[in-house]
Write a structure and sequence with these properties.
The protein is an alpha+beta fold and 117 residues long. It has one domain. 30% of the residues lie in helices and 31% in strands. Strands 1, 2, 3, 4, 5, 6 and 7 form a 7-stranded mixed beta sheet that branches.
Protein backbone atom coordinates (compact mmCIF):
# COMPACT_ATOMS: atom_id res chain seq x y z
CA UNK A 1 0.00 0.00 0.00
CA UNK A 2 1.14 3.51 -0.64
CA UNK A 3 1.52 5.97 2.20
CA UNK A 4 -1.37 8.02 3.46
CA UNK A 5 -2.32 11.09 1.54
CA UNK A 6 -5.16 13.55 1.48
CA UNK A 7 -6.97 14.45 -1.72
CA UNK A 8 -9.37 17.37 -1.60
CA UNK A 9 -12.56 16.60 -3.51
CA UNK A 10 -14.13 20.00 -2.82
CA UNK A 11 -17.89 19.66 -3.05
CA UNK A 12 -17.74 16.83 -5.63
CA UNK A 13 -19.60 13.60 -4.90
CA UNK A 14 -16.95 11.37 -3.23
CA UNK A 15 -17.72 8.20 -5.16
CA UNK A 16 -16.34 6.46 -7.20
CA UNK A 17 -13.03 8.19 -6.26
CA UNK A 18 -13.06 6.72 -2.74
CA UNK A 19 -13.82 3.19 -3.96
CA UNK A 20 -11.23 3.41 -6.74
CA UNK A 21 -8.60 4.48 -4.19
CA UNK A 22 -9.31 1.43 -2.02
CA UNK A 23 -9.32 -0.94 -4.99
CA UNK A 24 -5.95 0.44 -6.08
CA UNK A 25 -4.55 -0.34 -2.63
CA UNK A 26 -4.10 3.29 -1.61
CA UNK A 27 -4.52 4.52 1.94
CA UNK A 28 -5.75 7.88 0.69
CA UNK A 29 -8.19 9.95 2.71
CA UNK A 30 -10.48 12.16 0.66
CA UNK A 31 -11.43 15.55 2.02
CA UNK A 32 -15.09 16.25 1.50
CA UNK A 33 -17.70 18.69 2.76
CA UNK A 34 -19.98 18.78 5.76
CA UNK A 35 -22.92 18.50 3.35
CA UNK A 36 -21.58 15.25 1.84
CA UNK A 37 -20.89 13.86 5.32
CA UNK A 38 -24.42 14.71 6.49
CA UNK A 39 -25.93 13.23 3.32
CA UNK A 40 -24.21 9.89 3.90
CA UNK A 41 -24.97 9.97 7.62
CA UNK A 42 -28.68 10.35 6.80
CA UNK A 43 -28.95 8.01 3.80
CA UNK A 44 -28.58 4.81 5.89
CA UNK A 45 -28.31 4.35 9.64
CA UNK A 46 -24.71 5.18 10.59
CA UNK A 47 -22.51 2.80 12.55
CA UNK A 48 -20.61 5.04 14.97
CA UNK A 49 -16.98 4.52 15.91
CA UNK A 50 -14.69 6.86 17.87
CA UNK A 51 -14.16 9.93 15.70
CA UNK A 52 -16.70 9.15 12.99
CA UNK A 53 -19.13 6.70 11.46
CA UNK A 54 -19.44 3.98 8.85
CA UNK A 55 -22.18 4.04 6.22
CA UNK A 56 -24.01 0.88 7.27
CA UNK A 57 -24.00 -0.87 3.90
CA UNK A 58 -20.63 -2.56 3.23
CA UNK A 59 -18.86 -1.51 0.05
CA UNK A 60 -17.16 -4.92 -0.11
CA UNK A 61 -15.57 -7.62 2.07
CA UNK A 62 -11.86 -8.21 2.54
CA UNK A 63 -10.13 -11.57 2.15
CA UNK A 64 -10.96 -12.44 5.76
CA UNK A 65 -14.67 -11.80 5.25
CA UNK A 66 -14.58 -8.56 7.26
CA UNK A 67 -16.88 -5.86 5.84
CA UNK A 68 -15.29 -2.82 4.22
CA UNK A 69 -17.26 0.34 4.88
CA UNK A 70 -17.16 3.93 3.77
CA UNK A 71 -16.03 5.85 6.83
CA UNK A 72 -16.59 9.53 7.43
CA UNK A 73 -14.69 11.49 10.07
CA UNK A 74 -14.44 15.09 11.20
CA UNK A 75 -11.03 16.23 12.38
CA UNK A 76 -9.68 19.73 12.93
CA UNK A 77 -12.91 21.18 11.53
CA UNK A 78 -12.45 19.29 8.24
CA UNK A 79 -14.38 16.32 6.82
CA UNK A 80 -12.83 13.16 5.37
CA UNK A 81 -13.95 9.87 3.85
CA UNK A 82 -12.17 6.60 3.09
CA UNK A 83 -13.10 2.93 2.68
CA UNK A 84 -11.46 0.34 4.96
CA UNK A 85 -12.22 -2.85 6.88
CA UNK A 86 -14.41 -2.43 9.94
CA UNK A 87 -11.67 -3.62 12.28
CA UNK A 88 -9.10 -1.14 10.89
CA UNK A 89 -10.66 2.17 11.99
CA UNK A 90 -8.05 2.92 14.67
CA UNK A 91 -5.11 2.44 12.30
CA UNK A 92 -6.83 4.36 9.51
CA UNK A 93 -7.62 7.23 11.87
CA UNK A 94 -3.95 7.36 12.99
CA UNK A 95 -2.93 7.52 9.32
CA UNK A 96 -5.22 10.52 8.83
CA UNK A 97 -3.79 12.28 11.89
CA UNK A 98 -0.26 11.63 10.58
CA UNK A 99 -1.18 12.89 7.11
CA UNK A 100 -2.55 16.10 8.63
CA UNK A 101 0.66 16.54 10.64
CA UNK A 102 2.68 16.05 7.46
CA UNK A 103 0.58 18.74 5.76
CA UNK A 104 1.33 21.13 8.61
CA UNK A 105 5.05 20.37 8.35
CA UNK A 106 4.97 21.32 4.66
CA UNK A 107 3.51 24.77 5.34
CA UNK A 108 6.03 27.59 5.11
CA UNK A 109 7.17 29.05 8.39
CA UNK A 110 5.96 32.55 9.13
CA UNK A 111 8.43 35.28 8.32
CA UNK A 112 10.43 36.42 11.33
CA UNK A 113 9.28 39.63 12.89
CA UNK A 114 11.50 42.55 11.97
CA UNK A 115 12.17 45.08 14.70
CA UNK A 116 12.36 48.62 13.56
CA UNK A 117 13.72 51.13 15.76
Amino acid sequence: MSGPAIVNLGDAFPFPAVTEGRRAGHSTWFETTQEQREHFRDVLPPIPFPGGFFVSEPAAYDGRGVPIYSAFVKLQGRYFVREFAADAHEAAFRELVNALKAEEDELPSPAPEVRRG
